[in-house]
Amino acid sequence: MKKFIAFFLLAALSFGAITTWVGCKKGDDSNNNSSTQSVLSITTGALNIAPGNAVMYNAVLVDKNGNVTTPSSITWTASGTGGASIGSFSGNIFTGSGTGSGTITASTTVNGTTITASVPVGVYTPTLFTVVPSAIIWTTNAGTISLTPVYIGTGTTTYSYASSDATVASVDASGVVTFNKAGNCTITVTASGLTGSPVVTVPVMVTGTPSITLPVMRVGVTPVSNELFKGDNTTLTAKAYDANGSIVSGTATWAVQDATIATVDGSGRVTALGLGRTVVTATVSGITGQAEIDVLPDTAIILAPNWASIAAGATKAFTATTYKVNHSDKTLSVIPNPSLTWAVPTFGIPIFDIATVDASGVVTMRSSATPGLSSIVMASAASPTVQPGVAMITVSTCDCGTTAAGVTHIGVTSPTTVSLSIMSNPTATISAQALDASNNPVSGATLHYCSDAMAVCSVDDSGNLVATSPGTAIITICNGGVQTTITVNVSL
Question: Mean pLDDT across the stretch 5-20?
Answer without folding.
Answer: 35
